[in-house]
Amino acid sequence: MFDVAAREALLSRLVAAARSDQLVVGAALLGSAARGEEDRWSDIDLALRLAPGADVVQTADRWTGRVAETELVVDHLDLRASGALYRVLLLGSTLQVDLSFWPHDQTLAFGAPVEVLFGELPVEVLFGELPVEVSAVGSTEVDGDAMAAFRMGWLYALHARSALGRGRVWQALWMLNSLRDVVVGLYCRRLGLPVGEGRGVDRLPSELLPALAASLPVGVEARSLQRSFKELIGLLLAEAERQHLPGSLDLTRVISRLARVEPST
């Protein structure tokens, strides 16, 4: 589990870097930090408005390198929503760092409160879910869909951990069900079965089904959800290894550690 003081120190460094970056003209906090509700499970969620003409992907890559100068970045996932690139970093400490990069002429659209730190940011707060496109960055040697799915798996695992840690059992159940869907999707991709909406799951080989069944919680009770979490993490990592998805030993260790959270009572 990451250290809260270290998270705050990293955020301070990132905000200072944004203020000194000539290609960044504004920044804002999102999520629990913007609501004044940070706790030990909160991640870093920082939005950056770019200068006119700044390349979004190149800037995101440069900022990823900046974080990697002081932190172990074990993997990252790119999400695109409302015209922005969200670079989701998974650190060796298990901290999630969300950096969103907004083109200068793009209105910053969020589904949550925003705390503007500096600059002029044209902000629109939306209600409901934002349309999201997932991409598997840096996975040219494998099926991009499989790598994107795997990365969504560790993202769901991160949110399952925080939900369990906060005692939000129904949210945890939702995240664990989504994680199981990722595992099933990886099985189906490997075996050439339909992936969407569970259309291929009943055609999976019988030897895969007992482990899937074992990953189902017996109820919405924290200990049962924790057991389900551990089972699903094991299935996700085993399938990633079976498909030879790229990932370091550090990444495997970090994902394994996510299920060790003690549920809130």
Automatic annotation (TrEMBL):
Pfam family, one: NTP_transf_2
Record-linked InterPro entries: NT_sf, Polymerase_NTP_transf_dom
SUPFAM superfamilies the UniProt entry points to: Nucleotidyltransferase (SSF81301)
Start and end residues of each Polymerase nucleotidyl transferase domain: 13-72
Sorted UniProt keywords: Transferase
Top-level taxonomic group: Bacteria
GO molecular function: nucleotidyltransferase activity
Keyword Transferase: yes
Protein name per the record: Putative nucleotidyltransferase
Biological source species: Microlunatus antarcticus
